[in-house]
Description:
- The complex is a heterotetramer, with two copies of chain A and two copies of chain C.
- By secondary structure, chain A is of the alpha+beta class.
- Chain A has twelve helices and ten strands.
- Chain A has helices at 7-23, 26-33, 40-53, 71-83, 91-104, 107-118, 233-242, 251-267, 279-309, 315-337, 364-370, 381-393; strands at residues 124-127, 143-147, 150-157, 168-174, 185-191, 197-203, 209-222, 226-227, 269-270, 273-274.
- Chain A has a four-stranded mixed sheet. Chain A has a four-stranded antiparallel sheet with strand order 2-3-7-6, with no helix packed on it.
- In chain A, a hairpin with a 2-residue loop joins β2 and β3 (150-157).
- Chain A is globular and about 75 Å long.
- Chain C has three domains: 7-108, Acyl-CoA dehydrogenase/oxidase, N-terminal domain (Butyryl-Coa Dehydrogenase, subunit A, domain 1, Orthogonal Bundle); 114-204, Butyryl-CoA Dehydrogenase, subunit A, domain 2; 207-343, Butyryl-CoA Dehydrogenase, subunit A, domain 3 (Up-down Bundle).
- Chain C has helices at residues 7-23, 26-33, 41-49, 68-81, 87-99, 105-109, 205-240, 252-278, 281-306, 317-326, 334-343, and strands at residues 114-117, 137-146, 153-160, 163-170, 175-180, 186-196, 198-201, 242-243, 246-247.
- In chain C, α4 (68-81) packs across α7 (205-240) and α9 packs antiparallel against α11.
- At the A-C interface, β9, α9, α10, α11 and α12 of A face β2, β5, β6, β8 and α9 of C.
Amino acid sequence: xxxxxxxxxxxxxxxxxxxxxxxxxxxxxxxxxxxxxxxxxxxxxxxxxxxxxxxxxxxxxxxxxxxxxxxxxxxxxxxxxxxxxxxxxxxxxxxxxxxxxxxxxxxxxxxxxxxxxxxxxxxxxxxxxxxxxxxxxxxxxxxxxxxxxxxxxxxxxxxxxxxxxxxxxxxxxxxxxxxxxxxxxxxxxxxxxxxxxxxxxxxxxxxxxxxxxxxxxxxxxxxxxxxxxxxxxxxxxxxxxxxxxxxxxxxxxxxxxxxxxxxxxxxxxxxxxxxxxxxxxxxxxxxxxxxxxxxxxxxxxxxxxxxxxxxxxxxxxxxxxxxxxxxxxxxxxxxxxxxxxxxxxxxxxxxxxxxxxxxxxxxxxxxxxxxxxxxxxxxxxxxxxxxxxxxxxxx
Amino acid sequence: xxxxxxxxxxxxxxxxxxxxxxxxxxxxxxxxxxxxxxxxxxxxxxxxxxxxxxxxxxxxxxxxxxxxxxxxxxxxxxxxxxxxxxxxxxxxxxxxxxxxxxxxxxxxxxxxxxxxxxxxxxxxxxxxxxxxxxxxxxxxxxxxxxxxxxxxxxxxxxxxxxxxxxxxxxxxxxxxxxxxxxxxxxxxxxxxxxxxxxxxxxxxxxxxxxxxxxxxxxxxxxxxxxxxxxxxxxxxxxxxxxxxxxxxxxxxxxxxxxxxxxxxxxxxxxxxxxxxxxxxxxxxxxxxxxxxxxxxxxxxxxxxxxxxxxxxxxxxxxxxxxxxxxxxxxxxxxxxxxxxxxxxxxxxxxxxxxxxxxxxxxxxxxxxxxxxxxxxxxxxxxxxxxxxxxxxxxx
Amino acid sequence: xxxxxxxxxxxxxxxxxxxxxxxxxxxxxxxxxxxxxxxxxxxxxxxxxxxxxxxxxxxxxxxxxxxxxxxxxxxxxxxxxxxxxxxxxxxxxxxxxxxxxxxxxxxxxxxxxxxxxxxxxxxxxxxxxxxxxxxxxxxxxxxxxxxxxxxxxxxxxxxxxxxxxxxxxxxxxxxxxxxxxxxxxxxxxxxxxxxxxxxxxxxxxxxxxxxxxxxxxxxxxxxxxxxxxxxxxxxxxxxxxxxxxxxxxxxxxxxxxxxxxxxxxxxxxxxxxxxxxxxxxxxxxxxxxxxxxxxxxxxxxxxxxxxxxxxxxxxxxxxxxxxxxxxxxxxxxxxxxxxxxxxxxx
Amino acid sequence: xxxxxxxxxxxxxxxxxxxxxxxxxxxxxxxxxxxxxxxxxxxxxxxxxxxxxxxxxxxxxxxxxxxxxxxxxxxxxxxxxxxxxxxxxxxxxxxxxxxxxxxxxxxxxxxxxxxxxxxxxxxxxxxxxxxxxxxxxxxxxxxxxxxxxxxxxxxxxxxxxxxxxxxxxxxxxxxxxxxxxxxxxxxxxxxxxxxxxxxxxxxxxxxxxxxxxxxxxxxxxxxxxxxxxxxxxxxxxxxxxxxxxxxxxxxxxxxxxxxxxxxxxxxxxxxxxxxxxxxxxxxxxxxxxxxxxxxxxxxxxxxxxxxxxxxxxxxxxxxxxxxxxxxxxxxxxxxxxxxxxxxxxx
Lengths: 395, 395, 346, 346
């Protein structure tokens, strides 16, 4: 057993740290730390900085512009980036569509789309979920009917994250309704500027706008935008869902969240003593920290296994569950540590002498509420448990 | 709203307290407090004392020798008795068979069996569960075949509490195997001295002997020992299972358990201070106390409703679940409060100067383990949740 | 022993429920709850007209209630409708004004809106720890004053001659920095700088502690009302929503979680009844702690069992969920009150 | 980064597993575990002969192990087989004897059986709080000395010239009041009354703390082994047992609980690996706390998922369940170690 990184990995970790120290814009990191929304511009700036270093498309093979990292390198980058309050890399083009095109796309599709993802020309969003379908992805109803060289698309997608900024959407559509739900699905690339597409915002619980509904009314899509074979899109969809789940535990986010709670509790006074010195609060924090420390090792175990056998195992579902539980527990403690001031709406706090909390802590409650999503989206924890039941229990 | 007992109920409560102070033998109460086993003799003594006062058959109508109590009186008695460390009243004859005979028995059966339950002539045990059946009662396999004026019984019962002391057993047996599992069941009274009956002890996790397996090999039972109609025993069984669940929360036991933990934590030193002054331990105890205080009121709400409409509602299943959770949480804290000394086997502690814990606390761990049963037996908590699902969710 | 509401309270609760249903539908509620002054004058007037403020004052003192069960009847309805009006301040002010022998008519009629200002930033939830000094004027800062925007009067605690005293400050003479609450409604920072004040009670420690307990009970009752709503809504959802070809309510893992939610709510209701009956600080602390923890759990479970839809602003559940989580932070959170209960063992 | 066991450790673990399987079948295990002296001389000798005691000593000092991962390899097997032999004492004594420059041969060969005696009744788990005074003889009382019946030597902490020192007391010169443990194995009260003693380390505070951490790690590893066994056994049961006409494992509510159990065990294993790697007091405290809580939960869930059969003496699970619950009480329970971790924030 050896829990430490190899000398090469340690050197890489140092390199990542140095890169973040040198290249991550301070203003962006401050906004991430404060838990507020990261603008499209911020994301684009950060993507460009990463691409300049060749570190943007982290899961792509080198021949297509990836950095040639394995799961451990990606994990090291994730952890360091989260600690440094870097914005997340938007997954839609880079982690979702890119690998799909590399595996299933035609040579023309690869040549056309991949470079545009890398250089930021195309901002992609995802058209998977539909209203009333939830985790039951295969029940999708959006129809695409072939008419000559085009597909005519009608239907509705939902939970489309950052769709308001997107140039393109990759969609699962139904091209044949006669068989089982999983059959007759196709994977289509659609230009968001095509007539007949309407994007409507969905406001989330805490008030933010990050997801959307996307409506398709007689949207005409060139047939060459079909990826892989017609009616075999489920193969593509499954690949996308199971591909690259090594970052699923969100360890970096939890480490950053833990540091935030601890720092806040150190400077929060409650009746003459620091909150961190309150035995009950400290015990609650300690119990979450233990879970986090355990999860770090559990995550490394999964990474080592993924490196060894070439793909992550079913443990990723356990890590998804525990990862979201730990983050949500930390979000909860963070909000509670603020006491009554937690209630204030971020950005609407009274200023000057009347300030209630440090600006970086203002979004504690909003983050808590927003992060209820992490146990729902991306395959709810209940779905993960069903997956694990099948795999482990063989029942 | 009025949470207090009526003047009559208060007077009754006082009367019960006085009775317990006067009549409950101190040596028996000491044994109950110490959590050890209560002997058959102790139980018989206590039953006789209660019967002398007319308070033994608490759920029976007055015409058959009951005290004419309603659910509130029974609750008051239970609570006071538990606080005073009275042994429990054995339910098999008094709370199970008695009401069954009163509702389903022939006049001859009532006249013969009821007085013998009251005066202690017959010690009854229960023959419901079978190996491999668990909560799925209707799947029972013990067969009774009619031959002339007799039934010939073959099969096996299990989890027969205190069967080692019993004179009689009431059994569910299969008299017809052709229909649905619930059909073809009959309710039979069997003399434990009949040839062909063998009682084998089941030792429980903590080492105690309170339950048994009972084997029947060609046991001949007079046909007059059939209660109610042949093949309609399921009606009787259901009545027995749902009858009189108002005491199901075990509030009295939990109150006594809470007092025990608190008293122990008050006299236990941990590194120079009392355990009760440890903020973390005190907080854990406080959280259980709140649950217990809530449950007391929840229980009273159920009793008031039972008194109003004549029978308890589905809330009894919630009270069963929460009641066992609270008791088990208190058992857990009690064991933990003892620290390393909790491990010693009751009755085998070194004496004299080397004594480790007060004799009354010796059984803490044994009780903790033994009481894992309360969420399993009598309809496991999972079964209660299924019952509640059907009733409340109408799903 | 009787757990039925009296007819009077039942009638009040029913008419309150009807009024809230017609006046504070979720869209109107949201427009009031999330925009200053977080207060609908017409709605407040209607609430006052059906007499709910009288529920906070005993008959002896000119009201029609004044017991814990009166608060229960009112605030359960407020919670079920998620009404953001600043009623909490009135519930706490009423016994204080009565104790001080003040004219109660302005409060009872709804003309005056009172807010209680006792907490300070470094010691929220602990009136005794405040450092504001009192006299003819007050100087100091009070934090998280609920209903500050709408208030016409503040009841302010301050130290005077070594004792905790209670003062009245008129809103027009006070400097308030208001802020909106993420779960709806408004609060404010009361910035006192030689602010004119009138002493109502020179020795007010016990009276303030009791008033805070009234407020805590009100919050517990509000939570119970909101939890009932969440449970019923989630149950409806589980019965109607289909996934993988069947009602999601047919999944046993979800069924058992619904049973646990319902059981927890009944426990929370029970301890709230206990607190309303006893109205001693221990029972109220137990109720606020257990209800605070249960409310968060119910909120989280209701969202999770709904899935994505429960996360959206448009779906009313999200607002109930926010309220249920955030009310724990008002007047002492679960751990604060657990520690109070635990301290009594010592 | 590599989470595979080295070949040496794998071989040791395999041969230990085989030996335990053949020698300590559950019936023999129970007869040893629940009857004084809670020790099977032949079994102990066999354990010593395959060299497991060498795992506690570094190669430099004449052993073949000495790292946290060596302890892991040994105690996981001990836990999986529920072996009651007094190996914990040896694991803690080994580094102390090495530090003191004592001859290790008697320990390594299994001839000498060491027990550590540091806790006292009013301050269990806290060696520093002991009041026993040391010198040429010792007077005082040590509590919960594990393996006391079988021990040939006691390593005893006592205060000497203001410092915590370590003494050796020979079993034949000691007064021991032994007691059996409900989860199997024996402990004893060491009653010291001018008992002859030999000082091994005059300034032993750090060494004793480190030795206790080795013991805690051993208990964590033992728990992981026993939890794996419980999980596998419960899974088998769910697959084979039928109720209401179907495998009980087909009930989704039970499935989800199995997933939670498995996830919790993997977390416990992970933090045990962390502690074995770091062997600092914070990591060990975190491991002991998380493992202690997880072990209890696994024990309770395994019984509950089995139903009545899991409650019986005859069914091996009940003994694993007892061990998993009770090992939390050895060398500091979960709350004790949580408080230690929490105190580091201050």
